[in-house]
UniProtKB/TrEMBL annotation:
Its EC number is 3.6.1.41. This is bis(5'-nucleosyl)-tetraphosphatase (symmetrical). NCBIfam families: bis(5'-nucleosyl)-tetraphosphatase (symmetrical) YqeK (TIGR00488). It comes from Lysinibacillus parviboronicapiens. InterPro entries: Diverse_Catalytic_Enzymes, HD/PDEase_dom, HD_domain, YqeK.
Length: 190
């Protein structure tokens, strides 16, 4: 499928604001793919589809988690945490995406995980720094992303965890595992 077909397919499934965010993620992911030598088409597809499940019915998404034997801990977390894994399911079953790397990028774009691929890192960072995002510190993350993808991932994970703690929200453990792994690596690199 071409870019315009993907965009036409996702547009009716989300509010205008989310669609504009998606375009921003797509442009940012392609730009990062150019900088870091990743496949641009894969970055484009992963970005366009990353929020495809954001507004899907929660009960339906939880059924997918049970039927597909996805991480059972996802049950009860709501769309924020379900839409990545279920988005990957939709990308595979409805859009016929077979590249595991694209599916994983969609699957883990909210939480990150231990051992992310370059494409996963690109989508994870692009989702946080796309031009429509406005929060304290986003400019610093944008600058980092131009220089060092791993450092940008680390800064994004730390930003999200700090935000969740500050706002007294529970933390789904995949991000903690991701954080621990990143910090151990940074420590051993000095
Ligand atoms: N490990 C986690 N536990 C709980 N909430 C999380 C976790 N990681 C991210 N979130 C929250 O999930 C929400 C959705 O994140 P994300 O998918 O990146 O955004 P968007 O869907 O807007 O692209 C954000 O509010 C973020 O803070």
């Amino acid at each position: 499928m071409e870019r315009e077909e993907y965009l036409a397919a996702i547009k009716p499934r989300m509010p205008e604001k989310r669609y504009i965010h998606t375009i921003g993620v797509m442009e940012t992911a392609i730009a990062l793919a150019k900088v870091f030598g990743e496949n641009e088409k894969n970055a484009e597809i992963a970005a366009i589809l990353h929020d495809i499940a954001k507004y899907a019915d929660i009960a339906w998404m939880e059924k997918i988690v049970r039927d597909e034997k996805l991480d059972h801990r996802l049950i009860g977390w709501g769309s924020e945490l379900l839409h990545g894994p279920v988005g990957a399911y939709i990308a595979e079953h409805e859009f016929g995406i077979v590249e595991e790397d694209i599916l994983n990028a969609i699957r883990f774009h909210t939480t990150g995980r231990v051992g992310m691929s370059r494409l996963e890192k690109i989508l994870f960072v692009a989702d946080m720094i796309e031009p429509n995002r406005k929060f304290n510190g986003v400019e610093r993350l944008r600058k980092k992303a131009q220089k060092n993808l791993d450092k940008a991932v680390s800064a994004c994970v730390r930003h999200t965890l700090a935000f969740l703690i500050d706002t007294k929200q529970p933390i789904y453990p995949l991000s903690i595992d991701c954080y621990n792994d990143l910090m151990k690596r940074e420590d051993s690199e000095g």
